[in-house]
Amino acid sequence: MIKRNFLPLFFLLITLITVDSQAQNKDLADRLFKIHPTYREQALTQRRFKQKDILPLIARRQGNAMYQIEKVGESFEGRTIQMIKIGNGKKKVLLWTQMHGDEPTATMASFDIFNFLEGKNDGFDDLRKKLLDNTTLYFVPMLNPDGAERYQRRTMQGIDMNRDAAARQTPEAQILKGLVDRLKPDYGFNLHDQSPRYSAGRSPKVATISFLATSYDYELSVNDVRQRSMQLIVGMNKVLQKYIPGQVARYADDHEPRGFGDNVQKWGTTLVLIESGGYVGDPEKQYIRQLNFMAILSALDKISDNSLTKEKREEYYDIPENGRWVYDLVVRNATVRQAGKSFTSDLGINRNEVSYSNATKFFYYSKIEDFGDLHPQYGSQELDATGYTIEKGKVYPTAYKNVSEISKLNALNLLREGYTYVRLAPDANTRALGLYFTTTPLHILRSGQAAPSGTPGLGNTATFILKKAGKVKYAVINGFVHDLDNFNAEKGQGIVE
């Protein structure tokens, strides 16, 4: 009788099953990514929307048998906060967005998910049935509507409600704690946006999506509840790598005793924090919105069939930590002249958003935020200024009555002559207060506003020229680079100050 060792065959079979499962997960994620445009909520096309923009989207679902819509409280200013329940499964999932009012990416993705769950006959009916039979989803879109009204992080009280889980001084925090206590969700998704200048580790790649399996104690312990968070994140990271390779990061897991994520984890709910960061060329975060749609639905699929347990928690620690290594623009190796001496320096420039039109729109105001040796840092855009001398531009001698007159000037000719600044006349009809912008690539000075003196440096508005052999090659106006040999007047934003 011949004895055979079936153990290697057994392990081979397990390996094949695991590989096949991973392939199916990636195939599902790919299909979800591709179907997203079909279900993208067309009423939300830019990120500075307010509660009044989503209320009709909620109201149109009133009376639809697949939803239960409940008022769960009011904000400090009396705005109604609603919860949308979908599904009838045993596994309860609570998802909340915009606890910070200026972090709306996942709110957009949530309405895309609602549209998807309402769909049919598109190849996803089995997934929908699986999700709705096995899970009950509780969405709270825009938990901080007062902050969203102003496009600000904090609540109307000036409190960061993500640091209000313990004291609960805000009504919004009281609402969220009440829901956790009442629903006792098995899983929670704390959905945020982060600065678009975080890097994925020490790299030039912007962290487009960042995760955190929040810690429930200072010892950073890992129990079954937190382990599931790590496993879910590992699964989402795998499917995201196809679309943003090297651009997924994680936060350091230091315990924050006031944080909702940390406390929800401590209260027994498996909590995943997702942060939508930056992606070059996507200022309105519409591509990142698509990634949220895909990643969240993929995670819900893993929750619904418990396949998340196949992920290895150790791989969570392989995801690089968020770093602060990226500026919007880095100018490298510019020659600087000061006090009759020359040296080379790098400039780190960031384009900061300034709200206007009741915070529904924004323009950029750019500052030089670092100066010196920046070789450990990177720029989402970089300009090699080796051999070029940096100078402040000149002020054009003619003053103009209004910005419209200035917009008719030949900006390219002015920049070639070294003029970056144009002054408004004392009686100019301009906005009385504050910064403003212009589509003309020039830096406009109001009457009485002094032009910067000396070499552009730390803290200055990022407006200057770069010259070689007496010729202006580049003009940087309000942090946007203009190559004068390949000039595009539509590119960038001028500034009025």
UniProtKB/TrEMBL annotation:
Pfam family, one: Peptidase_M14
Keyword presence, Signal: yes
Cofactor: Zn(2+)
Stretches assigned to the Peptidase M14 domain: 47-303
InterPro entries: Peptidase_M14
Superkingdom in the source lineage: Bacteria
GO CC field: extracellular space
Family under the similarity heading: Belongs to the peptidase M14 family.
This protein's name: Peptidase M14 carboxypeptidase A
Organism encoding this protein: Dyadobacter fermentans (strain ATCC 700827 / DSM 18053 / CIP 107007 / KCTC 52180 / NS114)
